[in-house]
């Protein structure tokens, strides 16, 4: 989720965190009150910060989660997903996308555009 959309969609972020806790994820970090903030990465070319929406651990492996909702800035979202996917593969971590009803088609189109068709979004 792009930073602009985070303010509007805190409820879905909380719902996603509850789902992840229910399926066994621990040490959850998110940009919400009551949780530690995940580490941000700075893009040197444009000085923009990239922060995963949720970071959690399960079975000793770190997972990066990004929430996919229709956005006004799809190009920024694609950049974020490519970066998080590359970062997770470099460190033997996992990257997953979480989406909800009404956003499936948008998410699938975005994944196809950036050749991440091997990703199956978590549907909540």
Report on the architecture of this protein:
This protein has helices spanning 3-6, 10-22, 74-90, 104-113; strands at 26-30, 41-43, 48-50, 54-58, 61-68, 94-99, 122-123. With 124 residues, the protein is α/β, with parallel strands linked by helices. It has a single domain (3-123), classed as Trna Endonuclease, Chain: A, domain 1, CATH 3.40.1350. The strands form 2 sheets. A 5-stranded mixed sheet has the order 1-4-5-6-7. Strands 2-3 form a two-stranded antiparallel sheet. It is globular, with a radius of gyration of 14 Å. The two termini are 15 Å apart. 23% of the residues are buried.
Give a quick rundown of the structure.
With 124 residues, this protein is an alpha/beta fold. It has four helices and seven strands.
- How many domain regions? 1
User: What would CATH call the architecture?
Assistant: 3-Layer(aba) Sandwich
- Assembly state: single chain
> Which topology does CATH recognise?
Trna Endonuclease, Chain: A, domain 1
List descriptors.
124 residues; alpha/beta; Trna Endonuclease, Chain: A, domain 1; two-stranded antiparallel ribbon; 4 helices; 7 strands
């Amino acid at each position: 989720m792009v930073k602009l959309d985070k303010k509007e969609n805190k409820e879905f972020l909380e719902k996603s965190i509850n789902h992840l806790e229910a399926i066994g994820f621990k040490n959850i970090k998110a940009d919400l009150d009551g949780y530690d903030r995940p580490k941000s990465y700075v893009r040197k070319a444009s000085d923009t910060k990239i922060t995963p929406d949720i970071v959690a651990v399960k079975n000793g492996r770190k997972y990066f989660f990004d929430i996919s909702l229709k956005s006004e800035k799809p190009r920024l979202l694609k950049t974020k997903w490519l970066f998080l996917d590359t970062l997770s593969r470099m460190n033997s971590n996992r990257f997953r996308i979480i989406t909800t009803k009404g956003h499936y088609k948008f998410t699938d189109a975005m994944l196809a555009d950036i050749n991440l068709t091997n990703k199956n979004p978590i549907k909540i």
